[in-house]
Amino acid sequence: MSLTLEGDFGPISDVVKEKLGFCFESTNRLIKLVNEFLDISKLQLGRDILDIKETSIVEMLKDIIVEVQPEADKKGIYLTLILPPEPTSLVMADAGKLREALYNLIDNAVKYTEKGGVKVELQFVTKGRNNCAMVIVTDTGIGMTKEEADDVFGRQFERGKEAKKVYALGRGIGLFITASIIRAHKGKIWAESLGAGQGSAFYVELIAKK
Ligand SMILES: Nc1ncnc2c1ncn2[C@@H]1O[C@H](COP(=O)(O)OP(=O)(O)O)[C@@H](O)[C@H]1O
Ligand SMILES: [Mg+2]
């Protein structure tokens, strides 16, 4: 399709170009959706598909913030990264997958906030015998009810009416994938509502390198 669009098979009219462009876009959306479902089913099989290496979560968060910042600026909301005083520790993670998970949380926080802003905080805490890295994404956006917060990582795409929306737009899979990624890393993820209209907080806990 892209070759035809680029005119490799001869000239095409503007109308055909436009219509073919729509087809191309929706095919790409479909491919993306299929890949997301494939990723989910692979992740459900566990940690094995992850390419685990020492990963700097500090650099990863800085990098994501740079990417999401323009969207926050466009909306006139703040996007702040708070790092621990000695941000030296590394986590054991599949950098690509972990980035996808954290990106979705920060992207969501910006997406669902119109006033105020988003705070991304990294902390290192000790839990029993493990050192853990905690990423806390807090926003002042539309928030969630307690029920929504408890259920927000569920398979939204399997819920009746919601399912139709998802299959049409590919929406609502993000948090399910995010949670699958974190759990495949043997990490924890949970959400808290801060009250109606008061925003939300998302927590990710990962095992840090000793
Ligand atoms: N920071 C947030 N504040 C309020 N609602 C949220 C937030 N993050 C996620 N949600 C809710 O959870 C749903 C699922 O999120 P996600 O799977 O990432 O899908 P999407 O980004 O396509 O909306 C969202 O559609 C939204 O209703
Ligand atoms: Mg999302």
UniProtKB/TrEMBL annotation:
<dbReference type="InterPro" id="IPR036890">
    <property type="entry name" value="HATPase_C_sf"/>
</dbReference>
<protein>
    <recommendedName>
        <fullName>histidine kinase</fullName>
        <ecNumber>2.7.13.3</ecNumber>
    </recommendedName>
</protein>
<keyword id="KW-0597">Phosphoprotein</keyword>
<dbReference type="GO" id="GO:0000155">
    <property type="term" value="F:phosphorelay sensor kinase activity"/>
</dbReference>
<dbReference type="InterPro" id="IPR003594">
    <property type="entry name" value="HATPase_dom"/>
</dbReference>
<feature type="domain" description="Histidine kinase">
    <location>
        <begin position="25"/>
        <end position="210"/>
    </location>
</feature>
<dbReference type="InterPro" id="IPR005467">
    <property type="entry name" value="His_kinase_dom"/>
</dbReference>
<dbReference type="Pfam" id="PF02518">
    <property type="entry name" value="HATPase_c"/>
</dbReference>
<dbReference type="InterPro" id="IPR004358">
    <property type="entry name" value="Sig_transdc_His_kin-like_C"/>
</dbReference>
